[in-house]
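Help!! Second protein's tokens look totally different from the first
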Amino acid sequence: MLITVTRTGGFAGGERTASLETECRADGPELERLAELSLSAEGPAGQEPVPDGFRYVVRVDSKLVELQDPYLTDDQRQLIDSVLATAA
């Protein structure tokens, strides 16, 4: 499973993208679980953009979801943090 996260916004307004392939990773099954949960989680109704907040596009193979702070679930935050850490 290929997971790509693009983060935009924030105070500086920059963009950061990272991808990882879960196959052959020790944590692959956990990342795949988080990805499936992240794609299926419904965010709170009426999500208003937050000034200087981050926005995310999470692509899992051919599916994608658009998310934003502070409306992330714990699973979404863990997935995003794990993928972006690979680009550090």
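Here's the second one for comparison:
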Amino acid sequence: MTRATGNARVSCTVILLDRAWSRSTPGAERIVRKAARATLAGARRTGRYSLNVALADDGLVRSLNARDRGKDKPTNVLSYRSGEKAFLGDIVLARQTVQCEARQQKKAPADHLSHLVVHGILHLLGYDHETETDAARMEALERRVLAKLGIADPYS
């Protein structure tokens, strides 16, 4: 689906690799696309962009995390930058980890999913949180994007 976001057009392909996402977070595909549009608008990007978001399970994310980051455990979201300007890259989300975190943090699963999509896309755009300064910059942008989506500050 391609949509205009201010001066950016976003094509976000959502790949449902774990059908349990449909039960655990109804409307997950719509939520992902909405978060993608909001992120590019919030980051003030112009032009045409595309990305893929895979809704996977912990098993797949664990194997990717072990292979690509040397961490043999699942994580909530992985981002793979493409290195191209128009195709941002791929994001993979782990359903069980996302659901567990939402419960532990007392957040709506849809809100937590939105946050992780925003977070993952910001990584695709070159943001990171390796230093305190970079983390503060990235988190401030996450907060602004999520506020536009009506989602409370995930860091408070």
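Reply: Different proteins will give different token patterns, so don't panic. The chain has a mean pLDDT of 94.
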